[in-house]
Amino acid sequence: MTKVSMKVNGKPVSGEIEGRTLLVSFLRDTLGLTGTHVGCDTSQCGACVVHVDGKAVKSCTMFAAEAEGCEVTTIEGMANADGSLSTIQQAFQDHHGLQCGFCTPGMVMSAAALLAETPKPTEAEVRHYLEGNICRCTGYHNIVKAILAASGQDVGDIGGDAIAAE
Amino acid sequence: MYAFEIDRPTTLDAAVTALGQEEAQALGGGQTLIPALKQRLASPARLVSLTGIDELKGICVADDGALCIGAATSHATVAAEAAATYPALADLAAHIGDPAVRNRGTIGGSLANNDPSACYPAAVLASGATIRTNTREIAADDYFEGMFATALEEGEIITEIRFPVPEQAAYVKFAQPASRFALVGVFIARFGDGVRVAVTGASEDGVFRWTEAEAALSDDFRPEAVAGLSVDPEGMIGDLHGSPEYRAHLIRVLTGRAVAAA
């Protein structure tokens, strides 16, 4: 067992871990931050996406020891300071970007990483960026719509004829 | 996963020392090794993480014009920072895996692993790049030794890859849609003294140069130059995604597309 220290959602945290402890296990089991989900555990589904030093990563495919000294942001760190939903989270609710909600933490974290890099993405850029996030409920259209809306763009045409024509 | 210790050295020297321990294995970005560990396909006693070593990261252009990429540089960084110097290489990096994988996966890790369907080996071989390690330099033509096999010795660490920048280049990947690995990928690089064509994803021996196409394209750099060529399906990978014949066919088709895109 070794000790690891990092900042999670702005707060310094530390804990005893094994070499093989995954970042997602540390977040969920040691810190009790169960908003980050384990979907496939094979790096494919993206339900476990968190930010490490501002970059989206799959926390099931990174060891906790590798996050030593890093700044980690999870879905629990996304809400506004007053507890209200962030713009992206609110857009998911407004545009029905979730059904069962299992993939949503990863979707929101990927969306936030995308908008940090590309504040006004095109629909195609959003879809390309979400290649590593799998949703089995929504068919993605409303997720794409929510992200575009969160970027401040008009989404009146999204999900209708424009999609059908793709 | 079986239990193991993990080291996180911050210097190359410390990493070399750590790798000298019994049953130690290097860990790059982990985007292949961690899934393999989960399946208990690997059982090292100790992992030596290389991503905390700043001297292994970064991109620069050497005096001779070669693009030098530190081995622990992520795909996302290559995609962003190599775009001005070597656009075909940056484009290749921008289409590996997905964004989260590209933020962790490294060029050195990909090359040390030498997956037969990985993208970077095609770029390295087609560019005639040089693999620098902590002990020596290895030419691309001497580096790849078959599926998951390389010229690296036990405990040897890739430190940098030096890419001569071609006059024209393109990489065309026929992506396996679930994994986004190359079902077949073709990298074409045209230099003043000829054309190099490297193929990944297709052969049971891993990445290889298609010398027949190189000769044809060195004479006539047009897609039509390879239209009459064919690849023998013998030795090509056959799996549920595609037969050897299908992959052999794709090689020619993608080579033509790469020439058109270059």
UniProtKB/TrEMBL annotation, chain A:
* GO MF terms, alphabetically ordered: 2 iron, 2 sulfur cluster binding; metal ion binding; oxidoreductase activity
Pfam families (alphabetical): Fer2, Fer2_2
Q: Which UniProt keywords apply?
A: 2Fe-2S, Iron, Iron-sulfur, Metal-binding, Oxidoreductase
Question: Sorted alphabetically, which InterPro entries does this protein's record hold?
Answer: 2Fe-2S-bd, 2Fe-2S-bd_dom_sf, 2Fe-2S_ferredoxin-like_sf, 2Fe-2S_ferredoxin-type, Beta-grasp_dom_sf, Diverse_Oxidoreductases
Q: Tell me where in this chain the 2Fe-2S ferredoxin-type domain is found.
A: 2-78
Any stretches that span the bilayer, and where are they?
none
**Could you say which residues form the signal peptide?**
none
Alphabetized PANTHER family for the sequence = OXIDOREDUCTASE WITH IRON-SULFUR SUBUNIT
Protein name as annotated? Carbon-monoxide dehydrogenase small subunit
Which species is this UniProt entry from? Rhodovulum kholense
UniProtKB/TrEMBL annotation, chain B:
In terms of domain of life, where is this protein from? Answer: Bacteria
Which InterPro entries does this entry report, sorted A to Z? CO_DH_flav_C, CO_DH_flav_C_dom_sf, Diverse_Substr_Oxidored, FAD-bd_PCMH, FAD-bd_PCMH-like_sf, FAD-bd_PCMH_sub1, FAD-bd_PCMH_sub2, Mopterin_DH_FAD-bd
Could you confirm whether the keyword Flavoprotein appears in this record?
yes
Q: Tell me the ranges covered by the FAD-binding PCMH-type domain, including all copies.
A: 1-168
Q: Does the keyword Cell wall biogenesis/degradation apply?
A: no
Q: GO MF annotations for this entry?
A: FAD binding; oxidoreductase activity
Under PROSITE patterns, the record lists: FAD_PCMH
Give the protein's recorded name: Carbon-monoxide dehydrogenase medium subunit
